[in-house]
Amino acid sequence: MSTGILYVVATPIGNLGDASPRALEALRSAQVIACEDTRVTRTLLARNGIGTPTLALHEHNERQAAAKLLQALRAGQSVALVSDAGTPGLSDPGALLVEEAHRAGIRVSPVPGPSAAAAAFSASGFAANGFLFAGFLPAAGSARRKALEALDVPWPLVLYEAPHRIAKTVDDLLERLGPEREVTIARELTKKFEEIARLPLGSARAWLAADSHREQGEFVLVIAAGPEKRENRNVDPQAVLELLLEALPPGDAARLAARITGTPRNALYRKALERTK
């Protein structure tokens, strides 16, 4: 008997009208829907007249639920994996099920769609070839500040934050990155009270305090890229590159050498290709 398919389905992050026809078809055709909170998912299903059975898969039962769903997949049933909102696996449970499906030789098929991280980045206006998604920072203040030390990077940073921690997180960002670094605060994306503001970190606390409603809702923060790291003249980029090439392919060696020395990756990659000819 052939196995079923595990569909990883992105669902709306707020506005239910953002559900794609393909996502709805996947939810309708699956034999079971694995969801973070069955009550949340049933709202979407009811709106679209979908009666597919649901099974809770959350951080407290992920291993047990994944085992049950793998049995169904092995028996030829298809499963649709969703989170409460957005794309599963990004700061949400579900990665374990996907990993186990791969290990079992079960086909995994993504049904792409809404993502709060991508939506906020697209509305930030920070020009970049990519961004670093860090999800939720640690809740404890000392751990959060320590995490930020490693996240001052030369490309935009995207964070998720809960309303009861947003002010403290903004304070920590201000202390770490300074008042001039720009941030885009996206609140309640695609929902009725959506707000998106781009401003210096030095003004962010005042923006939050200006309206009591800003103490509520779900937040995405997009922090502008940090300054490019200057070349470390105490380290020979060519020597570092040649050492890394002894163990790594050219692309990986160039990437790591660029991070170590501050030398542009493209220049190092060209040298790596010449070195390996």
Account of the 3D structure:
The strands form two sheets. This protein has a five-stranded parallel β-sheet with strand order 3-2-4-1-5, with helices on both faces. Strands 6-7-10-8-9 form a five-stranded mixed β-sheet. Strand 2, helix 2 and strand 3 form a beta-alpha-beta unit. Helix 9 (237-245) packs antiparallel against helix 10 (250-261), helix 9 (237-245) crosses helix 11 and helix 10 packs across helix 11. By secondary structure, the chain is of the alpha/beta class. The chain folds into three domains: 5-114, Cobalt-precorrin-4 Transmethylase, domain 1 (3-Layer(aba) Sandwich), CATH 3.40.1010; 117-223, Methyltransferase, Cobalt-precorrin-4 Transmethylase, Domain 2, CATH 3.30.950; 237-276, no CATH class. The model has no long low-confidence stretch (mean pLDDT 91). It is built from eleven helices and ten strands. The longest helix has 13 residues, at 62-74. The protein starts with a strand and ends with a helix. It is flat and about 65 Å long. The chain has helices at 21-29, 38-47, 62-74, 95-103, 116-122, 141-149, 166-177, 201-209, 237-245, 250-261, 265-276; strands at residues 5-9, 32-35, 54-56, 79-81, 107-111, 132-136, 157-161, 182-187, 195-200, 219-223.
Can you give keywords for this protein?
277 residues; Cobalt-precorrin-4 Transmethylase, domain 1; five-stranded parallel sheet; Methyltransferase, Cobalt-precorrin-4 Transmethylase, Domain 2; 11 helices; single chain; flat
